[in-house]
Amino acid sequence: MxxxxxxxxxxALKDAVTEIEKFVATxxxxxxxxxxAIVRALPALETAPELADELPVDVAVNAITDPNTLFSxxxxxxxxxxxxxxxxAQLAWPEGVxxxxxxxxxIIVPPSAEKxxxxxxxxxxxxLSEHPEREDxxxxxxxxxxxxxxxxxxxxxxxADDMVVGSPDAVPGLxxxxxxxxx
Length: 183
Known about the structure:
By secondary structure, the chain is of the alpha+beta class.
């Protein structure tokens, strides 16, 4: 059931990003960046009815009753990039793609941990990864061409589906980076 304060298109994006995060979580931690195209099911099925054979049955059925139903397609063969920013700068989406999602892992530490970091980036990364207060997080961020966004965040220390938190703007930098792939 959709809460009364969330618009149906936002609810569909929330569901899609939550499902993407759960899907990626089944592969465990220390995973590479993953990118997904997000497509509105009803227009896609109207254009290519044979697609119904490839989609989970519930997606095809839901598309009949809910025009906001979305499905995701993981993108393979991503361009080579040294950074997340470099990867996203190389992406662009055709008109048939209504949104995109990215899943990435990062290390977070309290601000005090950054105070005495080595100047060398490699040594700083080692110091952060060995910090006793570090936390590994997985961020799944979705953005729709129309402007909606949804973010899910899972921590390694609370690695359970019911412990994933979400909001439209939890990871504003990734939302902005995904938005730029549609400009």
